[in-house]
Amino acid sequence: MKRLLILFSLVCLLGFSPAVAASDSLAVADSLAVADSLATEALLADDADADEAEGGIHKQLKTKFIDGNVGFMSLVALALVLGLAFCIERIIYLTLSEIKSYKLMEDIEAHLQKDDVEGAKQLCRNTRGPVASVCYQGLLHINQSIDAIERSITNYGGLQAANLEKGCSWIKLFIAMAPSLGFLGTVIGMVMAFDQIQQAGDIGPTIVAQGMKVALITTIFGIVVALILQLFYSYILSKIERLTAQMEESAITLLDMITDYKVRVKG
Description:
By secondary structure, the chain is mainly α. It has helices spanning 2-67, 70-97, 101-113, 117-125, 130-140, 146-164, 168-200, 205-266.
């Protein structure tokens, strides 16, 4: 009898274990499905919030632009566009003018060591940038005295420096113009506020706030445009200073090379 009871208990246990395992697996599967659905909903909600935020920023900028008096805000935007156009043009020109000046001077020295002046001139003609142009100008007058060569290099270097700074005056103009237009909009906004107060015959917060809003928005946009252009202008000045230093250093090195060449040829 005991053996029958033990055998019956084992059979019931074996039959109950798969059912429990199956129920556990179903519960885990249901939990995973719920978690996946929640994660998907969260991602969709985040994307919707991001799209709404982007649209909100664009809409806010458009609204502020209109609120700040379209006429004056358009002038400020025009100053930004024209100033950035000059900045981009200068950055491209200065970037293309940069070369490895030390490598150029090594190649020129190698040609002069071989008494190949024409080869050195050809190398300078085929190399872009003001450094190569200054070196070519010095090599053109290699048969003259050192003082004449130095004067020629100095004069031509001044012309190259002027070419590097071409257009920078326009950038400075737009930097000064943008906040000035903003301040002008501020004055216009104040005048509008007083006109509205005069027409209403009462100093109400709504009337004053409308004129002050126009005044402050134009000022903010003008200052922001000036700051953006000033950053680009400072970067352009740093590139001009670096190129000018390269020209001066290369000119000094070239004069030393020409002096050694003359001494060697005479000797």
